[in-house]
Amino acid sequence: MNTYASRPVVLCLSGHDPSGGAGLQADIEALIAQGCHAAPAVTALTVQDTVNVSAFRMLDREWVLAQAHAVLADSSVAAIKLGMLGSVEMVDTVAEIISANRHIPVVCDPVLQAGGGGRLGKDEVGYAIREKLLPLATLATPNLPEARILAELPEGSADQCAQTLLRYCQHVLITGGHGDESEIHNRLYGRDGLRQLSTCQRLPGSYHGSGCTLASAVAGRLALGQALQGAVTAALDYTWRTLRDAERLGKGQYVPRRLPLDFCS
């Protein structure tokens, strides 16, 4: 009989993207690349492609709780990664799960819209995430437009948004790339005064699932026991490489290549 060393298990609570570019498939691939095992619990079903999202349907609260409890009762979960929640009820549901497992680090990717611009929840969802989930999270990973929504600062800079969001969350990673700057600036902030700026070359094109990839990679690194700053740095480097090697699998955005071509060889 073969005996295998156990990889860290990361519980992922997010939506399903049938294009495979974002959502739970992105989580699974990014976590495999970190050396972790993804346990995906579906929060929503979406109708989307690499161009945009056209519809979504939230799962019942009882189904999400049942999925999460099955994983948590069976496995020693080393981290939790949050993605699309889509409704205030789902935010409350996930907050209940996390509150019962406060010893587990949580990475919250506040998914409020798809890469093509389609909304993935009503306006009050962002407010609910800020008030109910960010206080439970180890790290939130909004891009700048999402950070502005969460901080209620429509024209706010990353520094201004972080100042507001740190009232709720221990650490915030605000990612760049949504302007026309030649270099991408990603900024990590902490309540303890931490300020860490990471820069990378802007790549041509736009990408479907980059935020999911980054947040999952951070969660994986935390699950492996890496300290937060190092986990963020490693995840940013990994994500940039997935974008550099991205593929155009549909008619819209490029899809990050999260696993090497020879992964199954």
UniProtKB/TrEMBL annotation:
Which Gene3D superfamilies does the protein's record reference? 3.40.1190.20
Which range is the signal sequence, renumbered to this chain?
Answer: none
Please indicate if the UniProt record lists Transferase as a keyword. Answer: yes
Q: Which GO terms describe its molecular function?
A: kinase activity
Arranged from A to Z, the UniProt key words for this protein are: Kinase, Transferase
Domain of life, per lineage:
Bacteria
Which is an annotated Pfam family here?
A: Phos_pyr_kin
Say yes or no: keyword Kinase present: yes
Q: In which pathway does it act?
A: Cofactor biosynthesis; thiamine diphosphate biosynthesis
EC numbers on record: 2.7.1.49
Q: Which residues form the Pyridoxamine kinase/Phosphomethylpyrimidine kinase domain?
A: 17-253
The record, for PANTHER family, names: HYDROXYMETHYLPYRIMIDINE_PHOSPHOMETHYLPYRIMIDINE KINASE THI20-RELATED, PHOSPHOMETHYLPYRIMIDINE KINASE
Name-wise, this protein is hydroxymethylpyrimidine kinase
